[in-house]
Design a protein that fits this description.
The chain is of the alpha/beta class. Helices cover about 40% and strands about 15% of the residues. It has one domain: Rossmann fold. It has a seven-stranded mixed sheet, with helices on both faces. The longest helix is centred in the first third of the chain and has 17 residues. About 40% of the residues are buried. The protein binds zinc ion.
Length: about 260
């Protein structure tokens, strides 16, 4: 089996579906992770933005990937693929669609996991664009050859993967040292436990990571229920990512593009 994650940033798997990733690696599946950006703005300090934090984030992602399993050379079993777009500036356009489509088709996955951009608990533009791109690419594949598409960060989950080892999330997430602290790790650990516990009723009374399994049916992405409309409105207004100012100096000023 080949499992492919398509994520906006390093740490998105750790934050949303680390246990699913760990279990796929343990089963001996080929696991790939396409990272659309390298988190070039993943810090508040302007001095670090750009190439400096990019280098740090790539190293941290490498260490986090090792937590899920290493090969005989001591390298992560997960294949990390850096797509090369810039954090906060990931566009949703035809050029990127075609580039990403080519990569996905080359990997030829059985299962693809990406953010939900329709029933989303997080409307950060990079997540939203990654989700839309992945969704449309998988939709463009002939139905008989189409991989299963599972979307995380969804408030309309319908597919649950039981968590085998809940500690994996913090173990892997804590490798992203520039993004966290020992105190934050503890808080996050507690919040995760509460979240999974509260969702137990929906996930069949087990602790589980939730996804929305896409059927590519007509209108399946439409917000029909009032509860979903309210949730979308709340998330759209609250979690739209960092402020515009956070993404200055511009990529050009940072020497990321010419
Ligand atoms: Zn992210």
């Amino acid at each position: 089996m080949r499992l492919l994650f398509v994520n906006a940033h390093p740490d998105d798997v750790e934050f949303t579906c680390a246990s699913t990733c760990q279990q796929a690696v343990a089963l001996g599946w080929d696991v790939y992770e396409i990272l659309m950006t390298s988190d070039e703005y993943g810090i508040d300090k302007d001095d670090f933005k750009g190439k400096r934090i990019k280098m740090i984030r790539k190293r941290e992602m490498f260490e986090a990937a090792k937590v899920y399993g290493i090969n005989s050379l001591g390298r992560p079993k997960i294949n990390l693929i850096w797509f090369g777009e810039i954090d906060g500036y990931l566009k949703f356009n035809r050029v990127i669609f075609l580039r990403l489509r080519k990569k996905i088709l080359k990997i030829n996955p059985d299962i693809v996991i990406s953010p939900d951009s329709f029933f989303s608990m997080d409307l950060h533009p990079d997540h939203k664009h990654t989700g839309w791109l992945t969704y449309l690419i998988i939709k463009s594949i002939e139905p008989s050859k189409r991989p299963v598409l599972l979307l995380y960060h969804s408030f309309n989950s319908n597919f649950y993967v039981p968590i085998k080892d809940i500690s994996i999330q913090i173990k892997a997430w804590s490798k992203h040292e520039s993004q966290t602290s020992p105190l934050l790790n503890k808080i996050l650990k507690l919040m995760r436990k509460i979240f999974y516990f509260l969702r137990k009723r929906k996930s069949g009374h087990i602790l589980a990571e939730g996804f929305r399994k896409v059927n590519f049916n007509k209108n399946e992405n439409q917000l029909k229920k009032l509860r979903h409309k309210i949730l979308y409105y709340i998330f759209a207004n609250m979690l739209n990512g960092p402020s515009k100012e956070h993404y200055y100096p511009t990529p050009k000023e940072l020497g990321l593009i010419f």
